[in-house]
Amino acid sequence: xxxxxxxxxxxxxxxxxxxxxxxxxxxxxxxxxxxxxxxxxxxxxxxxxxxxxxxxxxxxxxxxxxxxxxxxxxxxxxxxxxxxxxxxxxxxxxxxxxxxxxxxxxxxxxxxxxxxxxxxxxxxxxxxxxxxxxxxxxxxxxxxxxxxxxxxxxxxxxxxxxxxxxxxxxxxxxxxxxxxxxxxxxxxxxxxxxxxxxxxxxxxxxxxxxxxxxxxxxxxxxxxxxxxxxxxxxxxxxxxxxxxxxxxxxxxxxxxxxxxxxxxxxxxxxxxxxxxxxxxxxxxxxxxxxxxxxxxxxxxxxxxxxxxxxxxxxxxxxxxxxxxxxxxxxxxxxxxxxxxxxxxxxxxxxxxxxxxxxxxxxxxxxxxxxxxxxxxxxxxxxxxxxxxx
Length: 389
Known about the structure:
By secondary structure, the chain is of the alpha/beta class. It has helices spanning 3-14, 16-21, 41-58, 75-87, 92-95, 155-161, 189-202, 217-227, 251-264, 267-277, 291-294, 301-316, 320-325, 343-352, 375-385; strands at 27-28, 64-65, 118-122, 125-133, 139-144, 166-170, 207-213, 231-237, 329-335, 357-362. The termini are far apart. The strands form 2 sheets. It has an 8-stranded mixed β-sheet with strand order 3-4-6-5-7-8-9-10, with helices on both faces. Strands 1-2 form a two-stranded parallel sheet. Helix 6 (155-161) links the parallel strand 5 and strand 6.
């Protein structure tokens, strides 16, 4: 097997959340710097033979290679094709490969595998998947992720922050794993908090450092207020929090919440709204290496309907009461250039909490930047959790 062909396996493994969620087989095609590359019928057929072999050998969901690019690709297909261009490069070596597909003895590279997978079953909430790295104990950093973003994206966080302590995260069961076996959720915000409680109990955590990232901030905040002494610190990064009409929110927040409200009202409306997100223009401003992950909820109408209900509940959550009850040390990070979540929200939160609050406003960084592995963010979290800042 050539190095390029192995890269095909790695890239497809990394893109499994999006490929697996898509209701229909996604198309992939030359994109980016290689958008003008031309492939004849035989080359296209060979690429698809390799993709089929990869899927069969490793149990992966695979796309269908087409060339030239289709006239009306979806945002999912553009994101996937651009990602392949960045990580794989040209499809030419795949098209020119020959012979039987050789399955390496060591199997998948494991780039997308999350450490410490554990299925948690707890009364009152559906069973859900958690992931952990680092030394076991009753203290841990608990990552509360943005709604609808696969935990795979946060593998670097687990690896980087677990050198001296346990790090744990989880995925919402209504949006990930065996979500198709569950009824459409009622979007009860209390259940979001209950999942965090079940996680703390399952791991025996008595000193949790909650880290709410973007849309995960409301859940982390409510959990910090609800679980009191079991939560030692609370961190929110570029928090999407709602303090009511008197506190600034960005035009994006207001518009997106309105769109989600419509999509949450029923499957038919969700299908109509989903077409807006399948327009490739929605990728404007989204870093190409993030796009396959943040587009995950848009792969299927029912999944999007669930996501709309869940995320609308998060955006509509009134954060005032919980903020006033938080007596833990709090770290709040934002930036002046975030056009998705207003920095004034972060400052208001810092003034409202009962405990000691530290607000870090970075000179630059848009909303999606916080999802990209960043040594500065890791250092900031380590110092805060360790008692610094």
